[in-house]
Design a protein that fits this description.
Length: 582
């Protein structure tokens, strides 16, 4: 045993490795991403990025059927994408153990919504383990493989951003060598058509009954008997806040949040005068506890229905006095999110704004194109939606004198689900313009590989998919490739594509600036600046304007000499610094 400080994500990877897990499959997404990145670096495992979460779970189920232990990781919205195989995997069960990490993001630090993955566990009837620190993350993950194999079910593991990213002490151990189990054909278990699914459904009911018995005494739910006047039921990172808010209360810490230990919860409720459920951004747990027949007490002030809980709002909800605290400084300069200096996405949004296009956006770094001063995106719903929503706009606006409709999507998001949206547009003879911003990486989540850059998680030999070839094979009317840094070419391509009533795809290609960290030439503003402010409208963090004169300046420590601003200066006032690199 070695003591280490690990994040929840690292601990989950370590737990899977110690359990002898053979294979990892994932699609990146904050706060889950480092789990698979850590797992991939451990010895004797195979790990891959898949184009999306549905594929990741299906690969995992194939490997499980063949007898391997598998780890599948994703962020909470990824569970929506893999919900289809998830619900039926609950019927088939497993051969090798399957553990699925759903990393939730209460507070939406880096997500488009707040979802509670425990609803998926309940709806698909798959057990859900919920660690409250890294040590539990390791132990629960490791044990989850035994649980998965003994109950013949995939097991879900829920973390939230505080568990995923906080480092707490863990004791790491050795890997257990687990052989890949033999595969035996068994259509009644693995072919889910009605004739076979009906008996499996009955097996699932029996399995749930045994899980409900097991959960009453399993070692993952613990009661800390304290002051009997207040009893709090909680799980995950919320437990840590509860401990800080009222350390003397009696606490029922749930490590399994589906199914719930109904009898144990009743016994706990009877042992205290008042009993509450504390949870964040959801009412899953309080509703589920109430459904067990436990009568909960009303809070003095309700907990916030959205966002994270913290010790102050827990104390306030329980009617406890708030400890003295210092107000945070309010004079801290704002740091609004922005595309990086030199980001190849910038110029595209500048040109789309000039074009006054209706822009259906997607999820990636380029979503920041919605913010001032670029103000270049009208919609952003979920991964892949840019292409399908653009088609919807075109259908609704057909026959009207409308602004051009342009979808904007990144390379990784295109592989994730944009491809099937485009298949729909081509199939239904849709029109409009689709811009694929190919920056050679999945930048938003930290530079992961994807099918269109051919980089794999463990740097294995791979194939880069031929993007223009795929588009042509699909039958897209017009496919153009343009350098994202070339203002004139970008302008021309967008203008031409939006002039006619056909389906155009423009591939804007230029590598993400963070891929190449070598010293770059920098720009400076010479004496010809008139203070017109056009360069500022690019929203580059390296460019600032004197508030009185309007004269621009370029911060050489941020500039990477991408030349985008130079092309927009009508006065030739931006030049490359002598000697090039800063
Ligand atoms: C279903 C789902 N899975 C994962 C994510 C996390 N995520 C957001 S954007 C993105 C990919 C961005 O890559 P790309 O489209 O290439 O754009 P870039 O950030 O490189 O500009 C990912 C993985 C998500 N938001 N939704």
């Amino acid at each position: 045993m070695v003591k280490q400080l690990l994040s929840g994500n690292e601990a989950i990877a370590q737990g899977a490795w110690e359990a002898g897990c053979h294979i990892g499959t994932a699609y990146p997404g904050t706060p889950s991403t480092e789990t698979m990145e850590t797992f991939a670096k451990l010895p004797d495992v195979y790990a891959e990025w898949c184009p999306n979460e549905k594929v990741a779970l299906e690969v995992a189920m194939g490997a499980s059927a063949a007898g391997a232990r598998v780890l599948v990781t994703m962020k909470h919205v990824g569970v929506n994408v893999c919900a289809d195989p998830l619900f039926t995997a609950a019927y088939t069960g497993v051969n090798g153990g399957v553990v699925i990490l759903a990393a939730d993001d209460p507070g939406m630090f880096s997500s488009q919504n707040e979802q509670d993955s425990r609803y998926y566990a309940m709806a698909s009837q798959v057990p859900m383990l919920e660690p409250a620190d890294s040590s539990e993350a390791l132990r629960f993950t490791k044990d989850a493989y035994e649980l998965s194999e003994s109950f013949d079910t995939p097991v879900m593991l829920r973390s939230t951003v505080r568990i995923s990213h906080t480092k707490t002490p863990v004791e790491t151990g050795e890997r257990t060598d687990v052989a890949v189990k033999p595969y035996e054909s068994n259509a009644a278990k693995w072919v889910m058509m009605p004739a076979f699914a009906k008996p499996r459904r009955k097996d699932l009911v029996k399995r749930i009954d045994s899980l409900k018995k097991w959960v009453e005494t399993c070692p993952y739910n613990t009661v800390e008997q304290g002051d009997s006047s207040i009893g709090i039921i909680c799980a995950g990172s919320v437990y840590q806040h509860v401990k800080e808010a009222c350390s003397t209360a009696s606490i029922f810490k749930l490590g399994v949040t589906w199914p719930l230990p109904s009898q144990a919860l009743h016994e706990f409720a009877e042992s205290v005068e008042k009993v509450y459920v504390v949870e964040e951004a959801s009412v899953y747990l309080s509703d589920a506890v109430k459904a067990c027949g436990v009568v909960l007490d009303e809070f003095e002030t309700p907990l916030p229905p959205d966002g994270e809980v913290h010790p102050e709002n827990i104390r306030a909800s329980l009617g406890l006095s708030l400890p003295e605290h210092r107000e945070a400084a309010t004079d801290v300069p704002g740091r609004p999110p922005a595309l990086c200096p030199g980001c190849p996405h910038r110029l595209i949004f500048k040109e789309l704004s000039r074009l006054k296009a209706i822009v259906t956006g997607d999820i990636g770094c380029y979503t920041l194109g919605a913010l001032p001063p670029l103000n270049g995106i009208d919609t952003c719903l979920d991964m892949g939606a840019s292409v399908s929503m653009a088609h919807g706009f075109e259908l609704a606006l057909k026959g009207t004198d409308h602004r051009p409709v342009v979808a904007v999507i990144g390379d990784s998001t295109f592989a994730h689900s944009g491809l099937s949206s485009l298949v729909n547009t081509v199939y239904n003879k849709g029109v409009g313009t689709v811009c694929i911003l190919d920056n050679r990486t999945t930048a938003m989540t930290g530079q992961q590989g994807n099918p269109f850059n051919g980089v794999t998680l463990q740097d294995r030999d791979s194939r880069e998919l031929d993007l223009p070839g795929i588009l042509q094979a699909l039958g897209v009317d017009q496919v153009t490739e343009v350098d994202s840094y070339d203002m004139k070419a970008v302008r021309k391509a967008l203008k031409e594509a939006t002039l006619h009533d056909e389906l155009d795809v423009i591939i804007f290609k230029r590598a993400c600036v963070l891929l190449d960290k070598s010293p770059k030439p920098t720009m400076f503003v010479n004496g010809d600046c008139t203070g017109c402010g056009v360069c500022k409208t690019l929203g580059c963090p390296a460019i600032s304007c004197d508030p009185e004169t309007g004269i621009s300046a370029i911060d050489p420590t941020l500039c990477i000499g991408c030349n985008q601003c130079v092309q927009y200066c009508a006065f030739g006032a931006i030049e490359m610094r002598e000697g090039g690199a800063n």
